[in-house]
Design goal:
The complex is a heterodimer of chains A (246) and B (444). Chain A is built from six helices and ten strands. Chain A is α/β, with parallel strands linked by helices and 246 residues long. Chain A has an eight-stranded mixed β-sheet with strand order 3-2-1-4-8-6-9-5, sandwiched between helices. In chain A, strands 7-10 form a two-stranded antiparallel ribbon. Helices cover 56% and strands 5% of the residues of chain B. Chain B has a seven-stranded parallel β-sheet, sandwiched between helices. Classes of the chains: A alpha/beta (246), B mainly alpha (444).
């Protein structure tokens, strides 16, 4: 009978869903991840650029599944595919991370402490939306991702039931059932660079959202509008500040 | 036939049942004449003192209030039908203790709600449900009560009602908006019927729906039950791991560690009994533990082959006697064999395992409202704490045997080392007073 929750020697697999990430943060993200996870599994949603080649160039990317036609609008299916592929690496823990997300430095050194324990089955982190550069994050009424916790790291328990909702959009990055287990809210931080580009990049994102969701069915129209805010409230990021303990 | 009612005749919902059972028998209600206003003329009343003159070996009892437990205790009627009106299924600690004791000593229990029905099924056999939702199901109760009073077995009818209820609920689920709890009930029906595959599917559906509707405690309420179902399906390693996934408290963690260690040491029966206990299935836990201990006492081959140790449904369904008499049954291959509680490995072969099994069985008996059975297994006390526990148990057991003075004496002895025994004495007095009031027609 194998040990249900190992207090040491856990294998950590990162799983990532990508599409047309060349020229953005993918390379840096994979280099970063390669420093602290054991294996990386990627599902490429029909990229039309060099994304697959970049992925293949990292030895820790042990599985790269390329979807021939985009599964946009079938997000539940895409999430399920990534989850199933990640399980094939027989992980003890899974880290769900995007190609524009980076753990702060100290988190990378502490992640083994977070998973080498036998009490908690998930860990959540505070995620910060960087804005306009890699130096500031946004902090106002509509941009408060960092004020709550986002579950990114889960223990894999083979006999547990993991389900994703069969939704087309806004499917959670990890199975819904994960959160029902006992978890731990870490004060460690994750940097989200998705909004760190220039004004043109943000305008392009705004236009895309308004085209896909003009009535605010999937998100808040006020938040969409705030993307174009000319003077958002920004806070300087302190990389080495002690943001709390693990 | 003696009826111990919970209310005056004009509110008594079991009138037709009493009328059916009372045909050809004299029927006496333990209450005042005033409370029987409007009742059929042939029904009489009897005082508490009058009960002492009856020939109980030829008297059937219908009890509809838990506070009659001590009055009925020790009289050993020919049949005891415990009917629990919905409003009396739950109450304070004292109420629950009387209810449990009454149900444990009953020939047959009729619940008014599914949660209580299942709770009783997890403690004993011969349990029925009459909630007015399904006529066919309710009719089975009438038949079962008649059979029980006539001294016949009700096991087949009990199983038939489980199946009927499961079918009835399945029909409802096709028409109504489902809830996680309804799915869960289906899982429990499947489990009690030994249909592991169906039970597993329903339990998973219940869990998933609970998650989708953001219900609190979904893992502990729904997912955990899969551990018992997987044990039923003879997958002990999966069952233990499933339980382990669901742990939330230190007590549960400790139980999981213990069952894992027992399984690793080959003590699968003991691990299984502990898992059943942690799922509140005291009936399965007790049945397994009793068989284990009897095998150990008889010096049976530890790695006994499964067919020689199978429990029969009779063993498991014999709720009242389960705790009091040896139930080792010969191996049978008849249809009464219970798919639950099958041997999954070897029996305990060491004193430590036997002691642990005994401890678990004592606890199961206590939690099932069978203090007498628990007392019979208790070792002589070696410490003050053990002496206190024994005295307390003696008090609880003897009051259920009608030995009121012995019970109080034991409790007073225990009171020298703690306050709890005094609370028990006060509880007995309070229940006595309630019974006395009801016997006088005061049901307030």
């Amino acid at each position: 009978m194998s040990v249900l929750r190992k207090a040491s020697g856990n294998k950590l697999t990162a799983m990532m869903q990508v599409r047309n990430e060349a020229g953005r943060y993918l390379e840096a993200a994979l280099a970063d991840l390669s420093g602290f996870v054991d294996e990386i599994v990627i599902v490429d949603d029909a990229s039309e650029d060099e994304t697959p080649d970049i992925c293949r160039s990292f030895p820790k990317v042990v599985r790269l599944v390329q979807v021939p036609t985009p599964l946009f609008g079938q997000e539940g299916r895409l999430r399920q595919l990534l989850w199933q592929e990640a399980l094939r690496t027989e992980p003890d823990w899974l880290l769900s991370i995007d190609a524009d997300e980076f753990f702060e430095r100290k988190a990378k050194t502490r992640i083994r402490t977070l998973i080498d324990q036998d009490r908690y089955d998930w860990v959540s982190f505070r995620m910060y939306d960087f804005w306009g550069s890699l130096a500031y994050y946004r902090d106002d009424d509509l941009w408060q991702l960092h004020r709550r916790h986002t579950m990114m790291l889960v223990r894999y328990l083979p006999l547990y039931s993991y389900i994703y909702p069969d939704w087309n959009h806004h499917v959670p990055r990890l199975p819904l059932t994960c959160a029902a287990l006992q978890g731990f809210q870490s004060e460690l931080r994750v940097k989200h660079y998705g909004w760190a580009g220039d004004e043109a990049a943000r305008r392009a994102k705004y236009d895309r959202y308004m085209k896909l969701d003009p009535d605010g069915k999937w998100g808040s129209l006020a938040q969409y509008a705030s993307i174009l805010d000319p003077s958002p409230a920004l806070v300087r990021w302190q990389e080495d500040e002690e943001a709390g303990t693990t | 036939m003696i009826v111990f009612p919970h209310c005056a005749w004009d509110n008594f919902q079991y009138g037709s049942l009493v009328e059916r059972l009372g045909r050809g028998r004299s029927v006496l209600f333990v209450t005042g004449a005033q409370a029987m206003t409007g009742a059929p003329r042939e029904y009489g009343t009897i005082t508490l003192q009058g009960l002492n003159a009856l020939d109980w070996a030829h008297t059937a009892v219908v009890a509809t209030h838990p506070s009659w437990a001590y009055e009925i205790a020790g009289r050993k009627p020919a049949a005891l039908i415990a009917l629990t009106p919905a409003e009396l299924e739950n109450g304070d600690e004292s109420h629950s203790r009387c209810r449990d004791a009454l149900c444990a000593s009953a020939t047959l229990v009729v619940a008014s709600s599914e949660p209580f029905y299942f709770e009783q099924w997890f403690r004993r056999g011969g349990v029925f449900l009459q909630d007015g939702l399904d006529t066919a199901s309710d009719l089975l109760v009438d038949a079962a009560v008649s059979d029980a009073v006539a001294g016949k077995s009700v096991d087949a009818l009990a199983r038939l009602q489980l199946q009927r209820r499961m079918d009835f609920r399945a029909e409802q689920l096709r028409a109504l908006r489902p809830s996680a709890m309804q799915y869960f009930f289906q899982a429990v029906y499947g489990y009690l019927l030994g249909k592991g595959e169906e039970a597993e599917r329903w339990a998973l559906d219940a869990f998933h729906l609970a998650i989708l509707t953001a219900e609190e405690g979904a893992v502990q309420t729904y997912f955990r039950f899969l551990s018992a179902v997987r044990l039923l399906r003879e997958r002990p390693d999966d069952a233990i791991a499933t339980y382990g996934i669901s742990i939330a408290t230190d007590e549960e963690r400790s139980a999981f560690e213990e069952m894992s260690a027992l399984r690793a040491a080959g003590e699968t029966h003991l691990a299984a009994a502990l898992l059943y206990r942690m799922n509140d299935d005291l009936r399965q836990a007790s049945a397994l533990l009793k068989t284990m201990l009897e095998e150990a006492t008889a010096g049976a081959e530890p790695a006994a082959s499964p067919p020689g140790t199978e429990l029969t449904r009779k063993e498991l369904d014999d709720g009242a006697s389960m705790a009091e008499t040896p139930v080792r049954a010969p191996a049978t291959s008849d249809s009464e064999s219970v798919p639950h509680a099958r041997p999954l490995g070897r029996l305990p072969n060491g004193p430590a395992a036997a002691a642990r099994a005994t401890g678990l069985l004592i606890e199961s008996h206590e939690r099932s409202g069978r203090p007498g059975a628990a007392l019979a297994l208790l070792e002589p006390p070696r410490t003050v704490k053990e002496r206190l526990r024994r005295n307390l148990l003696e008090g609880r057991a003897w009051v259920m045997e009608g030995r009121r003075h012995d019970a109080v004496r034991a409790l007073l002895q225990a009171a020298m080392t703690g306050l709890e025994p005094l609370h028990v004495i006060a509880e007995i007095a309070s229940v006595d007073a309630k019974a006395k009031r009801m016997a006088e027609g005061d049901f307030s």
